[in-house]
C-alpha cells in the first residue's frame, strides 16, 4: 500500500498530518516520541524526544493500560479504551513498524471516542429499561410470568447449591369473574392491585412475587424457609378482612383468595424441577377451590 501511495504521488507525512487523530511514532527502548503529527502537536505541543506518556494527560509514568509491548511481541495491532479524569474517553491503538535499519517501533494512534461511549451508555440504559419493562406486569407492577420465571430459576439454582428447601404458592382471587361482571373491569383492576399490594407487604423482601396471569399470582419462597402454611394463612386472613370500596357506591366489594402450595429441596435447581413444583402447587390450589375457596391447601 505504501509503495502504491507513493507511486500515486501521495506524501505519507501529509496523510498522517491530515488525520484528526493523534499519531506518534515511539521508540520503545526509551519510550520516546520520534514523530508526532500536526493534530498531536496542536493538542499537546511539541513533544518529540519526550516520553510517550506525555501523549496522555496526567500520566507521569508508564501507562497501566499500555499494550505497545504486546504489539511488538505479537506483530499485531493492539488497543485500549482509556477513561480520563474529566470524563473523556480515548481509544489508544499500537501498531508495530520496522525501520529501514531494522529497528522496531510502534505507531501510537489516539482518538477521542467520548461521544461514542456516551451513545453506548445511552443504548445500554435503554436496553436495560426495555428489558425491565418486558418483565413487569403493568397492571400491578409485579413481575410478569416471564420475569418471575427468570428470577425464580436463579433463586432455585442457588437454593439447590445450598441444599436448601424452597416453597411455591399460587394465589387465586375467588369469584373474580363475578366481580368483573357485577362491578365492572375498573373495580376488577382495583381488586388485582389490592391483592398484589398485600402480597408484597406480607411476604418477605426476598420472596419472589409475580402475577401468573389473569387473577392468579405466584410466590416463590427461598431459604431460609418459613412455615409455609402459617405464612399463607396470615395472608389469606388479611385479605379476607379487607374489601374494595367502589367510588360513589355505598356497598363494599368483599375479596377473598384461595392458595395452593408446596415445598421441596431441589436436586439441581433446573427449570424442570421448578415447573414440577408449580404443577403441584396448582393442583393444591384446585383442591382449595373445590373445597369451598377462601382457604389454603398444601402438599
Break the fold down into its secondary structure elements and pairings:
Elements lengths: L1 H6 L4 H6 L4 E6 L4 E5 L1 H7 L23 H7 L3 E6 L5 E10 L5 E9 L1 H21 L10 H17 L3 E9 L2 H8 L1 H18 L5 E6 L2 E6 L6 H13 L2 E2 L8 E2 L2 E9 L5 H20 L5 E3 L1
Parallel strand pairs: 11-12
Antiparallel strand pairs: 1-2, 1-5, 3-4, 4-5, 6-8, 6-11, 7-8, 9-10
Describe this structure as you would to a colleague.
The chain folds into 2 domains: 2-117, PAS domain (Beta-Lactamase, 2-Layer Sandwich); 137-298, Reverse transcriptase/Diguanylate cyclase domain (Alpha-Beta Plaits, 2-Layer Sandwich). 41% of the residues lie in helices and 24% in strands. It is of the alpha+beta class. It contains 10 helices and 12 strands. Helix 7 packs across helix 8 (185-202). The protein is elongated, with a radius of gyration of 33 Å. Strand 7 (208-213) and strand 8 (216-221) form a beta hairpin. It has helices spanning 2-7, 12-17, 38-44, 68-74, 114-134, 145-161, 176-183, 185-202, 228-240, 271-290, and strands at 22-27, 32-36, 78-83, 89-98, 104-112, 165-173, 208-213, 216-221, 243-244, 253-254, 257-265, 296-298. Strands 2-1-5-4-3 form a 5-stranded antiparallel β-sheet. It has a 5-stranded mixed β-sheet with strand order 7-8-6-11-12, with helices on both faces. A two-stranded antiparallel sheet has the order 9-10.
Amino acid at each position: 500500500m505504501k509503495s502504491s501511495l507513493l507511486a500515486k504521488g501521495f506524501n505519507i507525512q501529509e496523510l498522517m498530518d491530515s488525520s484528526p487523530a493523534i499519531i506518534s511514532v515511539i521508540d520503545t527502548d526509551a519510550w520516546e516520541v520520534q514523530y508526532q503529527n500536526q493534530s498531536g502537536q496542536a493538542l499537546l505541543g511539541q513533544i518529540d524526544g519526550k516520553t510517550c506518556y506525555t501523549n496522555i494527560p496526567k500520566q507521569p509514568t508508564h501507562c497501566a493500560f499500555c499494550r505497545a509491548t504486546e504489539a511488538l511481541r505479537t506483530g499485531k495491532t493492539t488497543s485500549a479504551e482509556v477513561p480520563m479524569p474529566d470524563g473523556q474517553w480515548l481509544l489508544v491503538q499500537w501498531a508495530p513498524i520496522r525501520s529501514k535499519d531494522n529497528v522496531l517501533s510502534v505507531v501510537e494512534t489516539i482518538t477521542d471516542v467520548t461521544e461514542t461511549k456516551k451513545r453506548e451508555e445511552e443504548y445500554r440504559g435503554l436496553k436495560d429499561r426495555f428489558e425491565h419493562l418486558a418483565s413487569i406486569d403493568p397492571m400491578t407492577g409485579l413481575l410478569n410470568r416471564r420475569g418471575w420465571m427468570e428470577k425464580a430459576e436463579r433463586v432455585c439454582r442457588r437454593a439447590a447449591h445450598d441444599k436448601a428447601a424452597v416453597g411455591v404458592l399460587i394465589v387465586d382471587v375467588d369469584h373474580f369473574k363475578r366481580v368483573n361482571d357485577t362491578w365492572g373491569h375498573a373495580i376488577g383492576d382495583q381488586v388485582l392491585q389490592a391483592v398484589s399490594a398485600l402480597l408484597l407487604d406480607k411476604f418477605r423482601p426476598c420472596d419472589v412475587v409475580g402475577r401468573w396471569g389473569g387473577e392468579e399470582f405466584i410466590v416463590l419462597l427461598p431459604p431460609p424457609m418459613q412455615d409455609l402454611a402459617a405464612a399463607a394463612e396470615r395472608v389469606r386472613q388479611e385479605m379476607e378482612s379487607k374489601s374494595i370500596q367502589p367510588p360513589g357506591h355505598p356497598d363494599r366489594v368483599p375479596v377473598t383468595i384461595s392458595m395452593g402450595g408446596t415445598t421441596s429441596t431441589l436436586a439441581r435447581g433446573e427449570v424442570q424441577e421448578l415447573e414440577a413444583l408449580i404443577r403441584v402447587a396448582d393442583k393444591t390450589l384446585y383442591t382449595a377451590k373445590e373445597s369451598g375457596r377462601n382457604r389454603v391447601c398444601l402438599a
